[in-house]
Amino acid sequence: MPVTLTLRERDFIRNETFCNPDFAKCAVVEGTGIRAELSLDEIEEIQGYVAAEANHTKSAKRRKELDRLFDKFQVFLDTYDDQSG
Fold this sequence. Notes:
- It contains three helices and three strands, in the order E-H-E-E-H-H.
- By secondary structure, it is α+β, with helices and mostly antiparallel strands.
- The chain has one domain (2-84).
- A three-stranded antiparallel β-sheet has the order 1-3-2.
- Helix 2 (40-56) runs antiparallel to helix 3.
- The model has no long low-confidence stretch (mean pLDDT 93).
């Protein structure tokens, strides 16, 4: 499933969560962002790392950014559910 992220989002996930930093290693640059082919399991795994970090951070600004990323990944999962059901 193609997942589009900005470079800032990719770097934020790499640097601010425990997610494997190579998660977007094979991503293709598209405009000002990247497109990575990720499985549903990979999307859920990344989303889990984002959620865990959001639940443990003391910074409201950081939590807001993590919540936004969580919601973005949820859209991909919801889209798949809508197509398969």
